[in-house]
Amino acid sequence: MSELSAGLRATAYVETEKLNNPKDKRPVEPGAPPPAGEDSGISRWIPALGVVLLWIVVWSFTKGTNTLALPGREHTDLHQTFTDFNNTLLASRDTNPVMQFTNSISELLRNFFDWAQRMLVRPNLPRPVPEIGWLGIVALATWVGYAIASWRIALLVAASFLSFGVLGFWQDSLDLLIVTGMAVVITILVGLPLAVLAGTNVRANRVITVVLDFMQTMPTFVYLVPVVLFFGIGVGGAVVSTLIYAVPPLVRIAGFGIREVSTTTIEATDSAGQTYWQRLLKVQLPMARKTIIVGLNQTILAALSMATIASYINGPGLGKPVLNALVANDFGGSFVPGVLIVVMAVMLDRTTTAASERSERVARGGGGNVRLRRILLAVTGVAALACVYLSRLELSLATFPSYTIGSTVSDGADDVMGSIVDLIGGVTESFRNAISYGFLNPLQSLLADSPWWLSGLGILGLALVFGGVRALLTTVVCLAGIWYLDLWHDAMLTLTMVLVGTVLVMVLALVFGVWMARNRWIDLGIRPLLDAGQTIPPFVYLIPVLALFGSSRFTAIVAGVVYAAPAAIKLVADGVKGVSPTTIEAGRSTGQTTWQEITKVQLPMAKGSLVLATNQGLLYVLAMVVIGGLVGAQALGYDVVLGISRSEEWGKGAAGGLTIVLLGVMLDRITRAAAEVRRDDGPGTRRAFNVRLPIGPPGR
Q1: 128 and 135 in contact (C-beta within 8 Å)?
Q2: Is the same domain home to 468 and 596?
Q3: Residue 590 pLDDT more than 90?
Q4: Separation between Cα atoms, residue 674 and residue 608, nearest integer Å
Q5: Residue 410: closest CA among 525, 331, 464
Q6: How many structural domains are present in the chain?
Q7: Is the pLDDT reported for residue 694 higher than 60?
Q8: Which residue in 600, 604, 597 sits closest to 575, CA to CA?
């Protein structure tokens, strides 16, 4: 995979900083003081420690008072107002123009999904089987894989589709693919024009970027609350929530690719007298083709991730059996559909990536023997159509045969996990107790048991120290909103879990990131695993973690750590690897040890990447902690789950969703501000620059 494709694998700020002065090529001496105007790294921690110590002193006298705790299913007048708003809209669905419009869209989506099901997976009465049987579907999918990529991808696609049926989840798998496909098609129709606008108009790009920043800060689960209100549960809500979540990656990446087209080329086309549309269609879009396909790759994976989560609002697909098994704490029941979700994600990822690489080769004249390929495409296309015809005639080729392999695998997985739990249950219990009693509980006591005004002042003080005045102002607005929404105590509980999870993520990121940066072979061995980890939808991470740690807040924290670690590790590894070799050699010439080299040269000079990794860790863990409301994480995640599942609690769920958004925005802005490394603006120096390269889910 190219560097561009690899670099577009995480939603992150890719911050590039020149370690040497562009006019002064002398290396930076290790251990030398930082340039004037630049933080030494320690200067921020001293006042931060002072804020925390003062907070602890006041907390020791005031803990347990004015915490604004709202236990159980209690709700406030504001929450009831939200619920009444929900009830009013639902009651006016036949007369309210907005509700009529959204209901018509939802009905249109349901009708299309029903038609697709009758074509592919269920009887099209009076016909006792679908219009196209399983053999025809597998043959067509395999041919498409070969047509857009290669025979290797064709084999991967065939094996993936066959696994859906052999393991007993043919209809659920096809349903998930249909929902994902519907969302992706609509996303392309909406997202590509926005990407063109963002790529060709500076002012429009600024506005679009702000909106996309907000959308990508919002955890996936939160999308479900407003979608249920306007589009209902089932197919309509699942498709709408999926396409909303899938739009940002395509707009960001495709817009970035269009903006990156060489200015020299643009000027040449202008001098030739080309119009705007000629330049766009003949120059910018063709030259940005590969990046656009990468954006499509990320959009497809984002759609698959959200379509899986949408099972909570009765969205069809593999998410349903996973959710049912999670609720029942049935590892075996969730294992097979969880594995198939991963298989589907890998299939879609590898197919679109291979399509991107092939399009690049063809554009450069390296597509191989074109005549032979056309012949093979024609022959295999005829064979695929023959399979479609046969699947319409033969009952055994229309309905996938029943196998017991899936049940056998589920039972075996259950037995294996039971053995693992018996073997390491004491270790996991000790680990959970160590983290809970040594870190989680004390931090929760400080954040959640402090009076609301004390924890608010403490957070404001830390925001000022780490993020400056701009972060402080954003934090003031966000904390005011959290207080107004009457879920302050739940927000502090969620913040506690997010901070603990992020610390664990950064420990892993530092250990493995530095190891990868310093050892090429380790990097080659671990990076593919990290890429694969970022392909897996977040819902799947709950399956093994729930089996190991049971239903609790700690389960959500561990799942968040596993979900966030790949992106953070790669950011740290790339940041440390980017430290100037000249600087490292200068340090070695002074006799520095390996530990000194890491702690005094590489990590300080990769500080921007470390803060960016923290930013991503915070947001990824927050997203997973919210989903963890399904498995006993309580706090804001539970509020959202309650609001989605019970109409009388919709107001509290909506308040919980808004609170999560404010919490995410606050954490994002503080860490983003901390990541802005500044230098003197005097002669011979320049400031670091940031490029927002979006890429995909939280998740990718």
Answers
A1: no
A2: yes
A3: no
A4: 8
A5: 331
A6: 2
A7: no
A8: 604
CB of 223 within 8 A of CB of 231?
A: no
The residues pairing with 13 across neighbouring beta strands, listed in sequence order, are 692
Residues 490 and 614 in one domain: yes
Whole-angstrom distance, CA of residue 270 vs CA of residue 699: 40
Q: Is residue 50 part of a domain?
A: no
Domain extent at residue 642:
410-677
Average pLDDT, the chain: 82
564 and 439 in one domain? yes
3-state secondary structure of 692: strand
pLDDT tens, 605-648?
888 788 888 888 888 888 888 887 777 777 888 888 888 888 88
pTM for this predicted structure: 0.80
CA distances from 356 to 254, 314, 447 (A): 13, 34, 48
Q: What is the pLDDT of residue 684?
A: 35
575: confidence class by pLDDT, cuts 50, 70, 90:
confident
The pLDDT of residue 508: 93
Per-residue pLDDT, averaged over 574-583, amounts to 84
Q: Are residues 214 and 272 in the same domain?
A: yes
Residue 443 belongs to some domain of the structure: yes
User: What's the sign of the alpha-carbon dihedral 93, 98, 104, 105?
Assistant: negative
* CA 144 – CA 385 distance, rounded (Å): 12
Is the N-terminal amide bond of 123 cis, ω within 30° of 0? no
Residues 304 and 172 reside in one and the same domain:
yes
Q: Is the pLDDT of residue 682 over 50?
A: no
Contact 386, 378 (CB under 8 A): no
Helix (H, G, I), strand (E, B) or coil at 217: helix
pLDDT tens digits for range 479-492: 999 999 999 999 99
Q: What is the mean pLDDT of residues 25-31?
A: 39
Same domain, 327 and 448: no
Q: Is residue 694 included in any domain, yes or no?
A: no
Q: Give the tokens for residue 98.
A: 């907005």
CA dist 629 and 483 (Å) reads 21
Q: Which of 67-71, 217-221, 385-389 has the highest mean pLDDT?
A: 385-389
Query: How many Cβ atoms sit within 10 Å of the Cβ of residue 273?
Result: 7
Whole-number Å distance between alpha carbons of 559 and 501: 9
CA angle 225, 88, 637 (to 5 degrees): 20
- Which helix (H) or strand (E) is 691 found in, with range? strand 689-693
> Are residues 279 and 416 both part of a single domain?
no
Find the Cα–Cα–Cα–Cα dihedral 572, 577, 580, 582, rounded to 10°. Answer: 140
In whole angstroms, what is the distance from residue 600 CA to residue 29 CA? 11
Residue 81 lies in a domain: no
CATH number of the domain that residue 360 is part of = 1.10.3720.10
Rg, the chain, Cα only: 27
CB 621 within 8 A of CB 556: no
Give the mean pLDDT of 351-377. 79
- Same domain, yes or no: 188 and 296: yes
Residue where the block lists tokens 């404001």: 460
Find the mean pLDDT for residues 158-178: 93
**CB under 8 Å to 589, separation ≥6 — which residues?**
none
**Structure confidence at residue 21 (pLDDT):** 36
- The one-letter code for the residue type at 686 is R
**Given this model, what pLDDT does residue 223 score?**
78
Contact present, 700 and 6 (Cβ < 8 Å): no
Question: What is the token pair recorded at 505?
Answer: 């993520």
Task: Return d(Cα 674, Cα 498) in angstroms, integer.
Answer: 18
Residues 6+ apart with CB under 8 A from 241: 223, 224, 227, 231, 306, 310, 313, 315
